[in-house]
Design brief:
Chain lengths: 372, 173, 373
Amino acid sequence: MSALETLLLVLAIFGVLTGLSVIVLSLIWLERKFLGRMQMRMGPMHVGPFGLLQPVADAVKLMAKEDLLSSLVDRVVYWVAPLAVFVPTFMIWVTIPVARDLVIRNLDMGLFYIIAFSVLSIVGLVTAGWASSNKYAVLGGFRAAAQLVSYEIPLILAVLGVAMLAQSMNLEEVVNSQSTVVYALVQPLGLVIFFIAGLAELGRTPFDIHPAESEVVGGPFVEYSGAHWAVFFLAEYINTFAIAALTVLLFLGGWLFPGISGDVSALGVLVFLVKTYLVILVVFWIRGTYPRLRIDQLMSLGWKVLVPLALVNVVITASYMFYGWSAWSLSLMSLAILGAAIWGLSKRMRTAPTPEYTVKLYVPAPEASNAG
Amino acid sequence: MLGNLKGLMVTFATFFRKPVTYKYPQEHKPIEDRYMGFPVLMWDEKVEEPYCTGCMVCVRYCPTQCMSAVMKDNPLHAEGKSTRRKIVDSFEINLGRCILCGICVDVCNFDAIEMSHEHELSKYARNDNRTNLPRLLEMGRSYQKESGWKPKPVKETKPEPETKTEEAVEAEN
Amino acid sequence: MVDLSTEGQLDTVQMMVNMGPQHPSTHGVFRMVLWVDGERIVDLEPHIGYLHRGSEKLCEGELYVQIVTLFDRMDYISNLNNEMIFCRAVERLMGLAVPERAEYIRVILCELNRVASHLLFCGTFGIDAGAMTPIMYAFRDREKIQSMFEAVTGARMMHNYIRIGGVKGDVPDDFSQRMGALLKVLRQGINETDKLLSFSEIFLARTKGIGVIDAETAIAYGMSGPSLRACGVPMDVRKDEPYSVYDRFDFGIPIGEKGDSWDRYYVRVEEMRQSMRIIEQALEQMPDGPTITPSRLVLRPPQGEVYVRGENPRGEIGVYLVSNGADKPYRVKVRPPSFCNLMAIKELLKDTYIADAVVILGSLDIVLGEVDR
């Protein structure tokens, strides 16, 4: 590697880091604003026009804040944990292309690399929970471990379906192979599994079990303050962006859009960003709507629903590839299984003996009110 | 899954509705006419003196003992300008202690104390909320101006028991 | 066959978790000491008293007119209901008649307060279950009720409006119009919250069958109000022993079937609708006339004792008042509904998850100001 190449690489990494930070700031603003509007509030309004500078103010505040440290924490692990969460989330961006040829290193095993690295951040969460010497943090850390490990499996299996279709693990080729039809249409089941598992990986509503504020008060992050907490926060938002970006790349055609030539980098980046932000808005929308699942319900959803479905997805994709069935057959099968799963799940979740979900109205008879 | 979808639709529809909140420090929610803010002392513009005579009825009936008052002879009465023989010398309300119940207003026989619309009273020190007579009168005057407050028409037949009970309370004390 | 059970091989230990008094979802300053085995609660010990202000004892040192303000601050979510129960106690003791119009105003405001209280419950229950939007909708509607209170009583929460012998003053002139508009908005808002939360499958999964208590146990613990009605017991003081003018209205008592958290939630949602029915009827029937029976400022009720009960949003509230003929009561004892409901917490929380603990505690809708007094 020549000196110039190294220099370019370093510059590219700095560029990605800066870009990601800007994106995180925009996401924070977007989330607060979006949730605010959904809740008939205005969201941040005071700092800058429409509160645009609010995330900057927050960031400055967090940096300037005193780093409180409980006397019982395991210091080394405590300081390493945020890095252990942040580094993998950043590392996966090495191979995520935002437009054709616009990527730091386009690895042939890109998908494999991403999955391998994203698993690592679990370690950070568990150690953060453990080192904080706080019971809520411990509970949250263990919740995070259980949740993230179990949801890696459906996530990987869903990615596997795409890799099979594209015959490649190189993200650029995955996108290129979607030039005729996006995989969201070919594999709706895979998209749903990937998105749900992705939400769980992020720890976002309805799967925000490990930071659950009303239960474990922020989980692994409860003892962190100031800049260290900000690093967790940064990692969380970069992860959100990464999952959305992967959804776009794997299922929604990346930077491809009918009528827009993907050869122009700037346009490609624009298309990619628009798609990614739309996916992120869905994530925020879900956050503004749903309550949280319980840990055992989350685990049974993962192991009893998503993993079998993901396996079925792999099987039907494999049969489709092996027998060379026509293209729409996979979509139909995928949709049918998805519909059946949703139907079964809604049957299953309404566990009450009576289908009528309401309370009765007791009106005592006028002549004899024998209540009590 | 129908319930979940309905929920999504509700939040989606709400997204396009107007926010109901106020940009608080710049914008305030309008206050209703009857709003009971901090008690203030009223200013008799005819005679240019407070209505309050320092009779201490409010002080006695205050559930939190947040007031104190001192009475003095009214110099204006000596000059013949005022009908009040006694007038308030000093008056203090600890607004930090006041619970805005309005009992002082109910018991006052002279329309001297009113619940103003003043309700924001952040202070830098704990004792800064102890409001003295000039400040109370100033708040009262601004309230008078703002709300067009007029003293109630002269009360017909004062209820007899009240005076009696005051004496009774005094006797007890 | 490989023995996969870790029974007796792994050294497991129960962990003690102090939930509260600073925990965000213990609804105030309630503290539970939980012994958990992983996520499962093995044992718990509730601690109360962090908000103890000695209200009952304070009552003994205050004049009757001043005690109303103390009752305002007991159950600070349903102030008017609390004021009313105390005033009724004193009126019963003195044999003081309350003008008809005052009774109607009291009923309207109390029912409105019930709606406000239940709205707050729906929102906080959503938060307990992890949904962050319902509380915003609930507060949006509750805010309108608070503005209405402000227009009538002059205060948003601590009203001191219901006085011994009536109410402080007549309602404003545009009261009925404003109430009509308010009820329309409230109906809409409640339907919205209902659609958003009540039938969401995730919410159902979190609350259905969680914290089940059967009617006998609930009665044995002295539960009352929506928490008891969720078990299918149609006990409502407004119907059983109608006070004020409640016997003139046509309304139903929502009762649940299973006595789980969802029933406790939905009984309250339905109760809001019934309350609004009461308000509508009361607005129609409201007669003209005086709003207070004039009485002395320093009341001296005759020697004696009285117990009155009424229906608060949280359940049956009772006031036991002993007078020795002086201007201050000899003893005031309050039977607080949320304290009695909270008694069953140990029964309800055994063998549940920590996440359920939050939901169950939320479904009881306690107000610590009243539990600790």
